């Protein structure tokens, strides 16, 4: 009987409790895992970062051993009402105060983004010394010139490589240097374990840059931006781990890398000979040139990127001439997907001469033409496809995409040439409005004749296309 009463009493106690507890559990920031707290703290501006120590004992612990320190004065300066000098001095004071709290601690990442001035040199040297002492693996010195248009002549911060010992050099894995001068000592042997490097506005000699990069044997990712060597850049030493390479707006005369496993290559700037012939696994290349002779560039690509599988080729103001490559034995035999983006202020009547490139792509499967030029609209000049003689077949071509179609004879003749020599073609799309870049329309209120261009494409392809090939014209 007592047992029965006890069971009823227990049941009654259970029933007295609310079935659904609507109150939310009290979760405080300090209850979060340490790695989450580290991430939150590392995103804070210097002032807020310094204030975290008053929140709780655990926050003080986090702020003292945070593996990532980020100091971004450029972003804060945008919101500041004071002068640049006054703001920079306050930034220096706050940064030094925070670094002092982390003396003797391990800091894996140190990032500094600030407008450069001569008054910063001593402090930057101290911050680099802090990175060395803190066993930093990721170092980002993203310095900004006060006046961008003067950056070529401005004195840059000289990275004190003499402060790095063998241990600190070996620990570095990621590094970004912007607006820095590099003058390595004679015994300097590069960064053997560096995996990711981004250099921008770097002042360095060709010899020193080649020497440094050739000893970065662990490099996986490399971005070189606005580094003007006025000379060639040739790395004959194998960089077998390099997978990603980007060269952007550098003044060079020639580029050569021995990177056998390179998968992605990007280049923007003036035309230079590019040699990646050792890159046997080059999956994709995105190349942008300005004001070039088209056939000359194509011949350079055939010898420099023979193994590329996917190519995006963006050319501003190409000079197209009737200089066929019929006799060359060079082919892009690995190429499967090709995008040609062309900005054509002149020579619109010579669009058909793009065929000289297509002849070197025997195994292409997907082809895209992206045009931009208001002078192309309904242009009636130029050669016809019958004038170029017998051509090889594009036996593997399945899909064609054309944007920026303006009803020009050269565009029509080019498309018909490809269609008539592509027995495996499955689909083709033609877009009259989508452009390779923004385009100026100088003819007043009357807009471009989109409908007329659509009719031209529909009529020409309606006759030429075999049955079963899908056609979309918009």
TrEMBL record:
Domain of life: Eukaryota
Domain F-box residues, every copy: 26-74
Pfam families: F-box (PF00646), LRR_At1g61320_AtMIF1 (PF23622)
PANTHER family attached to this UniProt entry: F-BOX DOMAIN-CONTAINING PROTEIN, OS02G0105600 PROTEIN
Protein's name according to its UniProt entry: F-box domain-containing protein
């Amino acid at each position: 009987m007592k047992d029965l009463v006890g069971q009823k009493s227990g049941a009654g106690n259970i029933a007295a409790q609310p079935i659904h507890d609507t109150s939310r559990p009290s979760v405080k920031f300090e209850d979060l895992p340490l790695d989450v707290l580290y991430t939150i703290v590392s995103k804070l501006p210097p002032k807020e970062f310094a204030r975290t120590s008053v929140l709780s004992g655990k926050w003080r612990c986090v702020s003292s051993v945070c593996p990532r320190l980020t100091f971004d004065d450029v972003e804060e300066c945008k919101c500041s009402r004071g002068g640049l000098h006054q703001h920079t001095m306050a930034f220096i004071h706050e940064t030094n105060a925070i670094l002092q709290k982390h003396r003797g601690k391990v800091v894996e990442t140190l990032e500094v983004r600030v407008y450069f001035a001569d008054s910063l040199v001593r402090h930057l040297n101290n911050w680099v010394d802090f990175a060395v002492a803190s066993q930093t693996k990721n170092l980002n010195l993203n310095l900004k010139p006060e006046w961008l248009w003067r950056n070529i002549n401005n004195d840059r911060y000289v990275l004190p490589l003499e402060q790095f010992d063998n241990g600190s050099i070996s620990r570095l894995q990621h590094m970004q240097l912007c607006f820095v001068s590099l003058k390595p000592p004679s015994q300097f042997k590069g960064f053997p374990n560096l995996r990711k490097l981004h250099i921008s506005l770097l002042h360095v000699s060709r010899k020193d840059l080649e020497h440094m990069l050739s000893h970065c044997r662990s490099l996986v990712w490399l971005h070189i931006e606005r580094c003007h060597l006025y000379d060639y850049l040739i790395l004959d030493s194998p960089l077998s781990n390099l997978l990603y390479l980007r060269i952007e707006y550098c003044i060079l005369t020639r580029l050569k890398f021995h990177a056998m496993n390179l998968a992605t290559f990007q280049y923007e700037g003036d035309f230079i000979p590019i040699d990646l012939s050792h890159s046997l696994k080059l999956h994709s290349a995105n190349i942008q040139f300005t004001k070039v002779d088209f056939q000359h560039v194509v011949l350079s690509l055939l010898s420099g990127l023979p193994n590329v599988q996917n190519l995006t080729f963006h050319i501003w103001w190409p000079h197209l001439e009737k200089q066929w490559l019929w006799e060359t034995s060079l082919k892009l035999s690995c190429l499967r997907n090709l995008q040609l983006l062309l900005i054509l202020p002149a020579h619109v009547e010579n669009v058909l001469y793009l065929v000289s490139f297509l002849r070197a792509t025997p195994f292409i499967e997907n082809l895209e033409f992206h045009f931009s030029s208001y002078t192309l609209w309904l242009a009636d000049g130029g050669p016809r496809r019958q004038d170029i003689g017998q051509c090889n077949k594009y036996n593997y071509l399945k899909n064609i995409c054309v944007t920026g179609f303006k009803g020009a004879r050269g565009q029509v003749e080019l498309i018909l040439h490809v269609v008539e020599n592509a027995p495996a073609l499955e689909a083709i799309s033609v877009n009259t409005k989508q452009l390779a870049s923004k385009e100026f329309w100088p003819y007043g209120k009357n807009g471009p004749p989109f409908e007329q261009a659509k009719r031209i494409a529909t009529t020409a392809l309606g006759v030429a296309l075999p049955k079963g090939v899908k056609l979309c014209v918009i």
